[in-house]
Amino acid sequence: MRQLRALVAVVDTGTFTDAAAALGVSQAAVSRSVTALEAALGTRLLQRTTRSVSLTVTGSRVLAGARRVLDEVAHLQRIVEESRTELRVGYAWAALGKHTRRLQKTWLAAHPGMPLVFVQSNTPTGGLSEGTADVTVIRRPLTDPRFDTALVGVEARYAAVATDNPLARRRSVRIADIVRYTVAIDSRTGTTTPALWQPGAAPPTIRTTHGVDEWLTLIAAGQAVGITSEATANQNPRPGVAYRAVRDAQPIPVWLAWWKDDPPAHLTELVNLTCEIYRAGRPGQGYADRDPA
């Protein structure tokens, strides 16, 4: 890295002397770094004269790669710095629904220098495996031994139907009402699976989707109906879609998950606060029946 920085500095400033000043080292140190880089690569990168320094043809190509490497390293450093100044909470569909804003505001009051930042990632671990989240909201059992989980609350199930569907005229529906229609299911990250129905009582057609936006678009067009968590109903209103409580469905458990060998800072406090907020709410009754228009 030192050698690459020296090469870029010489090219950007035009001389070894100015590069040394920019890097805060001696001119001899810059010269040694560039010479060592040329030796490691087995080729000359700079043409040196008493009056100027210029890139060789190979040097021009190496310079472009050097800039990319340095940019990537700087990006990695920013990731580390961000992890020290914010706590990233991943989710696939709906964060914590109606509890999201309250948790963020309560947390910020206690930790003004470390806000909760919710980041969406349509993966089974909600961004945890991909490194985009420090802790994640999970509504499906996570059996991967690399992660630990804590149950923080439960949410009611809601049906999502087109606003011109007859079911939209009801205040609530039953599971049996849903099976008359094509049901949209995101088998990768959604909360509904075929196991929700009793044997022999499954819907005649299941439409596979890939994420909440595609799921909602199908439903708004009347091409399918869906069942989801109360959080989705709260956090994802959509023109043409009506959400209705499913009164005979089991509630959906909500977990927080994190890397077992690398738990984030203030984890216990975050888990306890999330549990308190869920207990203070009234699961299954927090979403006012309304039709986004």
Structure notes:
The chain has 293 residues and is α/β, with parallel strands linked by helices. Helix content is 37%, strand content 21%. The chain contains 9 helices and 13 strands. The strands form 4 sheets. A 5-stranded mixed beta sheet has the order 4-3-5-13-6. Helix 5 (100-110) links the parallel strand 3 and strand 4.
- Radius of gyration, in Å, reads 27 Å
Number of helices: 9
- The helicity comes to 25-40%
Report mean pLDDT, rounded to a whole number. 89
Number of strands: 13
Task: Report the end-to-end length measured between terminal Cα atoms.
Answer: 56 Å
Largest sheet: 5 strands, mixed
Strand content range: 15-25%
Q: Helices and strands: which structural class? A: alpha/beta
Give the H and E element order: HHHEEHEHEEEEEHEEHEHEEH
* Low-confidence segments: 283-293
The outline comes out as: elongated
Spatial order of the strands forming the largest sheet: 4-3-5-13-6
SSE diagram, text form:
Blueprint: H1 2-13, H2 16-23, H3 27-41, E1 46-48, E2 53-55, H4 57-85, E3 87-91, H5 100-110, E4 116-120, E5 135-138, E6 147-155, E7 157-162, E8 172-173, H6 175-178, E9 183-185, E10 206-208, H7 212-220, E11 226-229, H8 230-235, E12 241-246, E13 252-259, H9 267-280
Parallel strand pairs: 3-4, 3-5, 8-12, 9-10
Antiparallel strand pairs: 1-2, 5-13, 6-13, 7-11, 7-12
Helix pairs in contact: 1-2, 1-3, 1-4, 2-3
